[in-house]
């Protein structure tokens, strides 16, 4: 069978998301999974993120549903601080 993109309907796609200025206490796997699941379905964190190679952003892959509107922001609360 031959793949023809025009004949296919995609309901979700994997997207790499950069989380800029993410506080260090959100860099644990559990936190990244929770953030990813707020955006869609968490797939994985990049190798550079898992190793802490870059500190200006964390990068995660999220499978996002194309049938609805995409989120403009995610708000995280950690004790008395908020990150958008």
* Arithmetic mean pLDDT: 87
Widest β-sheet, arrangement of strands: 1-3-2
String of helices and strands: EHEHEEE
> Which bin fits the share of residues in helices?
10-25%
How many DSSP E strands?
5
Structural class: alpha+beta
Radius of gyration: 15 Å
What is the count of DSSP helices, taking H or I runs of 4+ residues?
Answer: 2
What is the end-to-end distance? 45 Å
Descriptive account of the structure:
It is a single chain. The protein is of the alpha+beta class and about 80 residues long. The chain is built from 2 helices and 5 strands. The protein has helices at about 30-40, 45-50, and strands at about 10-20, 40-45, 55-65, 75-80, 80-84. Strands 1-3-2 form a 3-stranded antiparallel β-sheet. The chain has a two-stranded antiparallel ribbon with strand order 4-5.
SSE layout:
Layout (H helix, E strand, L loop, with lengths): L11 E9 L8 H11 L1 E5 L1 H5 L5 E9 L10 E3 L2 E3 L1
Antiparallel strand pairs: 1-3, 2-3, 4-5
């Amino acid at each position: 069978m031959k793949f023809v993109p025009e004949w296919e309907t995609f309901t979700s796609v994997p997207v790499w998301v950069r989380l800029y200025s993410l506080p260090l206490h959100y860099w644990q796997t559990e936190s990244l999974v929770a953030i990813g699941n707020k955006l869609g379905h968490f797939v994985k964190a990049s190798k550079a993120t898992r190793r802490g190679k870059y500190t200006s952003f964390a990068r995660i892959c999220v499978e996002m549903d194309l049938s609805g509107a995409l989120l403009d922001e995610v708000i995280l609360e950690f004790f008395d601080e908020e990150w958008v």
